[in-house]
Amino acid sequence: MAAHRCRNLACLLLLFLSVFLVTMSQETTLGHEQHATAVGDPQTGAETKHTAEKPRVEEKRWEETKVKATTQASDTAVLTKTQVNEDFQEELVIRPLHSGDIYASFQFRTVWETDFMKGNKVSHYRLFPKSLGQVISKFSVRELHISFTQGYWRTMQWGQPFIPSPPGAELWVWFQDSVTDVDATWKELTNVLSGIFCASLNFIDSTNTLQPSASFKPLGIGNETDHRFLRYATLPREIVCTENLTPWKKLLPCGSKAGLAVLLKSEKLFHSSFHSQSVHIRPVCQDRQCKSSSWELRQALNVVFDLHTSGQSKREWSLFKMFSRTLTEACPLASSSKIYIDVTDNPQEEQFELSPATPLLSQAVVLGDRRTFSVYDLTQQVTFGTVRSLNLMIRWKSSEGDMLRPLLHAERYVAGYGLQTGEIHTLMYNNHPFRSFPVLLLDSVPWYLRLYIHTLKVISKGKDNNPSYIHYQPSKDRERPHLLEMLLQLPPHSVTEVTVQFERALLKWTEYTPDPNHGFYVGSSVISSLVPSTVAMETNITMEQPLFSSFFPCKEESSYFARVYTEPLLVNLPTPDFSMPYNVICLTCTVVAVGYGSLYNLLTRSFQVEEPNPGLAKRIANVIRRMRGVPPL
Amino acid sequence: MAAPLTLLMIVAVTVRAVLFRSSLAELISERVEVVSPITAWKRVIEGLALLDLGVSPYSGDVFHETPLIIYLFHFLVDYAEITFMLADVVTAAALYAAAKDYNKQVFRKQKFALEADRYPPDCLELIRTPLEMHYVPLKVAMFYLLNPFTILSCVAKSTCGLNNMVISLFILCTVKGNVLLSAIFLCLATYQSVYPLTLCAPAMLYLMQRQYIPVNLRRVSFWWFVVQYLFMYLGSLFVLVCLSFFLLGSWDYMPSVYGFILSVPDLTPNIGLFWYFFAEMFEHFRLFFLCVFQINVFFYTIPLSIKLKEHPVFLIFMQLAVISIFKSYPTVGDVALYMAFLPLWSHLHRFLRNIFLVSCVLLACSALFPVLWHLWIYAGSANSNFYYAITLLFNVAQILLVSDYFYAFLRREHHLTYGLYLKKKDGSEATLVLK
């Protein structure tokens, strides 16, 4: 009882504090705007003052929102459920990359406090897409992650993406432990998702489905980690195009009519170096105590534009140039709608110039690094200015930028020549100068490349590096792929090379793809790791954070979770002659018949002295003589 | 006789040891003609590695050897080269002893027949002389030990060498008249690769001949012997199967070894007829042709046994040849085993019709296998049809070889009954034809 009263008191206190802070922050923002207009041409002294001031402003704003959330949570009992427990946020992060490319990452997040399970029939949908809700309840899905990617994310040049994904399609699902026949449910689910996303997910069958034992832990709440309920599959050959984007956009509450989604025009999105769209459904905590859970649907779209080389010699970009649209409003259903622009490398504006300038700056710890962002809040009318449209623009001043090597990256290739055997090499780089860290390597190899696990070699710095954990599941012909999972320790500042030999199988002529000499794809290796972080990570999952920094839950402050996908491999197999089936059947059967015939001959006949054949005339004469009744000649 | 045999063995072991030490060993062990998916040493090692990882070797589709082999090499993996050389030497010794014993019996029988005056008078040049027969066992051992096929098979550490050893020990025990050991070794051979099952018939025929039991379906003694032999055979098979079960604690090996042999899921090219045929087969005829091809191996047992019931050792030779031609994953090691018997039938040479052609074809094919493989797999300038054509030719040559020997054998038997120089009714020289 006392505790309850204390909480009420705290709520009141927080409410009061929030009002106070809101006024404070408004004041500081205003003050800053005045300052900016007054200074006009920023000088170094004033600028440092700026940056010192801005983070504090943003921190205050976060505190404000957090307080709001807490007060809302305490008021749920009073308010009607459907209005309060559903929330939609949208966000666009733009990060200029060192290579001169532009990385734009859209994230849309719908959170709904409802229960799809236990026979609870949910029929009233508001923001959450009904098609996915029905999928969750029908197939007892606990977590669903699906991504479609065109192009390969170049970790070495671009750093880590906010949400990593392998080329092609990737799907991994945790089922509830109430599911009895997981394989059948999985098969049905892939077919349904194939329909929803207009993708070839129906090609997922037992030959490319895995049950990783350690690499894919649930990202949402719940500590059930029995990997019998996990299914993972990739289709490295899947081509992603407009027909996948349209159904994906339809899942958004505003569709592509309003908000950030108006930028998602396929003619521009697919004219890019990298395009990845994904859907992630998971249960998340509502509050710090995690008393109640809600379902989170996160739709992410990552795209890398190669503006530098595409025609214009000038290095500059704008929203209009990238997406051929400008923004005019936020999605009216969204509780928050923001654009973040990464300006960490540009504190003095010496690298590029951002227009229109924004007064808001924000700092976030993302992927082990503290980054500074300029923030545009689309829910504020003032963002759109007098022209009622926002067309962000960056003009580069200098072209050089120092490459920050990512701490972890990996690559993979096939070695050897000929069509009989080969060797898969996976290289993992730890670029940390003094710390080693563990990585989990997941390799999935189709059955027609027969791996020889006794040839597995792990070498770092010229020495054998024995994996501390190996989970190997050999393949079954035409049934399941090879699965190799290893826990490795990467020494600091080193390259670790994993090699394993394989043998190429000759398939039945009907098992080849229509273009067999193009080769067969082998899905990316997945490297999951806890990479040492340079700054303290935020471990409080319920705290209000920008969406891009809150995807992977963080358990400890000193490291962050990163997943790196290697290139998919393209491997040639020996092929039979596809025009020959009749000939081969005829010829082989002939040889068998020669064997049978000669043995049959010798078995059934006996040796006899050859008597000369009487001539034809004589035989005819004998016939006539027999008719006449006279003895033959 | 022991000295030449010892010398031969020393030479054979030296050749093998030198090849093991050379860089060729690696190359040979990758050759598809020498190793099949069942017998490949690489796969045995893989099975052991899987066992070390705590995974059942039969959970995947790489290892297809029997549990006894994996158990054997669990201890002998470091002495694999010696084991395989020893296996070849034992095989040669067993074949040598068996040939010697068989020759003695042939000679004795011939003597009885001569004394009983059963041969026609003009057949004296068909009668075998002790001088001619003296070197036959040594030649048999030499044909096995110095056959390039055997050497390649041994250097590749193909477990085919072990199967050959078991089969040759079975032949030795049968020829020596040891019923129990014969049944046990036959069961071991069957356990290793199913097909030697057909050797049951010649073994029983030979043992009955030795014990003077007439091959007559109406006689109780005949059936009693058959039941005895089958009991021993099936009993030891049962023991082996159960032993394998207890070694690994599961029945997984059954589909993985025998299902693999019979259903031919692995279409890796080899010298046999199966791989390309089933790679190019229409899906709904696959089962039908699979049955036809597998029955084909077992099909000849009964007619051959009826025709050759007086000559079980020649029947063993015929059966081994049929198995090595028509089995699902043949290697050159299988060919080498039945080729070792050829000196035993050296007295048939005057009746062979196309031995020159056949040996030329066999030699040419053996040379062309690696060439066309290289053109297909490495150079990319040929396709699978080239290699397939050579396997076809190789098999036709083998079939011709076997049927030629069969013809010659039957013809000699015919001459021994009816005389060598047959006359027509009109007194002119006659020609023999099969009718």
From TrEMBL, chain A:
GO terms for biological process: attachment of GPI anchor to protein. Residues 47-62 have a biased composition (Basic and acidic residues). The keyword Methyltransferase does not apply. Keywords: Signal. Residues 1-25 form the signal peptide. GO terms for cellular component: GPI-anchor transamidase complex. Transmembrane segments: none annotated. Pfam families: Gpi16. PANTHER family: GPI TRANSAMIDASE COMPONENT PIG-T, GPI TRANSAMIDASE COMPONENT PIG-T-RELATED. This is Phosphatidylinositol glycan anchor biosynthesis class T. It comes from Oryzias latipes (Japanese rice fish).
Automatic annotation (TrEMBL), chain B:
One of its GO terms (cellular component) is GPI-anchor transamidase complex. Pathway: Glycolipid biosynthesis; glycosylphosphatidylinositol-anchor biosynthesis. It is a multi-pass membrane protein. It comes from the Eukaryota. Residues 1-17 form the signal peptide. InterPro entries: PIG-U. It is found in: Endoplasmic reticulum membrane. GO terms for biological process: attachment of GPI anchor to protein; GPI anchor biosynthetic process. The chain crosses the membrane at residues 68-99, 143-171, 220-251, 257-278, 285-302, 314-342, 354-379, 385-407. Keywords: Endoplasmic reticulum, GPI-anchor biosynthesis, Membrane, Signal, Transmembrane, Transmembrane helix. Belongs to the PIGU family. This is Phosphatidylinositol glycan anchor biosynthesis, class U.
